[in-house]
Amino acid sequence: MLSPADCYIHGCFFRFFKLLMHNPEYHNFHNTNNLIFTIHMSYYLNTTDEYYLHDKDSLNWELTVCNALQPEKSPCRKVLQNDNHFGCQLFYFLNDFIPFSDLQNILEVGGGFGYLMRDFLTLAPHLRATMLDISPYLLAKQKNCLTAHNVAFLERDIMCMKISELQHYDLAILNENLGDFPTLVTQSPQGQSANFPTNRYLDKLTYFRQTYHLTLPPEENINIGALEVLDNLCLAGIPYIYLSEHSCEATLPPSLKPYIHFAATVTPERISLKNHDEYTIKFSHLEKLAQAHNYQVIRGQFIDFLPLNCSDRVRTALRLSTPFSDEQEIIQQFVYDLYKYEYLVLIKGGE
User: Is 61 in the same domain as 18?
Assistant: First the structure.
């Protein structure tokens, strides 16, 4: 039951809303700018900062594609045409678009355990790398992994970096982590307290709509953090940018549709993980933003540079509705990820 004070507050609110709805100035503003008041009532803010800042087991519970290909005897390596680390295979793929011999300073944001960068520096030892991470736990793991290489380590949030601080990098890498950035979501997950967006994120939503003409319907989840990070990297004029994450727009070839089940959706999907949620990425928004900054965009799926060896082992695992072994279950999930993950390679001023 509402107290007299609550009734007074609610009464004031609804009288204010009624007056607002009858004001023609409101309707004009709402139609052109998607009134901030309405946005605030529609969105919750999903963040992962607390998890990565304070959970000492962060990433141990997430089997990324990069980590899955790290062990020499990983069953995931057996299903690929090339038996090698993720970082090596990505490097050889990117080398077709990026002249690594001409680069000097590279930045990796959220570098996990450091495996990708170790492969890059092994293949291109002249590079000077900076590892930027919000997690002290993961940054310590990266330091341990990269002791033999020329690397600087920064315990900072990429979203707090000034554009001027980003300008001296030749390449920025954000691998399998765009879903960690703040997301405006239309429904607060059950059992979790609502985290309302600050005016800063609501202002950013208006900024992206007006500046880049992005279609951001109020019924969709919005990758507001990923958009902001990419915008800053592009404003800094970094010549080459590589991004990847689970995509809400990924598709399957017809030959695999009977065995792998996912469909492209219109809105980023929630991924429930240990002590936090992440959201898949709407890559068409990132693509449009990068093109507005005069970047050539190369877009694809992990399967492009991690091609499958369609052996009997793989075909058998994919055909099973219920896997008989741990290895078959791992293969099913790994092949799923090869198609679910999308990447962007961005080249400044490229044609």
Answer: no
**What three-state secondary structure class fits 2?**
coil
Q: Is residue 29 domain-shared with residue 50, that is, in the same domain?
A: no
| Gap between the Cα atoms of 89 and 351, Å rounded | 25
Q: What is the CATH number of the domain that holds 287?
A: 3.40.50.150
| Antiparallel, parallel or unpaired: β 295-301 and 341-348 | antiparallel
Q: Residue 145: which residues within 8 A CB-CB, separation 6 or more?
A: 113, 114, 115, 117, 118
- For the chain, how many structural domains are there in total? 2
Claim to verify: residue 29 and residue 63 sit in the same structural domain:
no
On whether both 24 and 170 belong to a single domain, the answer is no
Q: Check if the beta carbon of residue 31 is closer than 8 Å to that of residue 175.
A: no
Instruction: Output the six-digit token pair for 229.
Output: 């990070």
Per-residue pLDDT of the chain (351 residues; tens, 9 = 90+): 444 344 433 344 333 334 334 444 434 434 434 433 344 447 888 887 767 676 655 445 467 999 999 999 999 999 999 999 999 999 999 999 999 999 999 999 999 999 999 999 999 999 999 999 999 999 999 999 999 999 999 999 999 999 999 999 999 999 999 999 999 998 766 655 556 777 888 899 999 999 999 999 888 999 999 999 999 999 999 999 999 999 999 999 998 888 888 877 889 998 877 777 899 999 999 999 999 999 999 999 999 999 999 888 888 899 888 888 999 999 999 999 999 999 999 999 976
Residue 199 parent element (H or E): helix 199-212
Predicted model pTM: 0.85
Two tokens, residue 29: 């503003």
Question: Which range of residues forms the domain containing residue 8?
Answer: 1-33
- The verdict on 164 and 28 lying in the same domain is no
Residue 47 CA to residue 183 CA, distance in Å, equals: 7
φ, ψ for residue 230 (rounded to 5)?
-65, -40
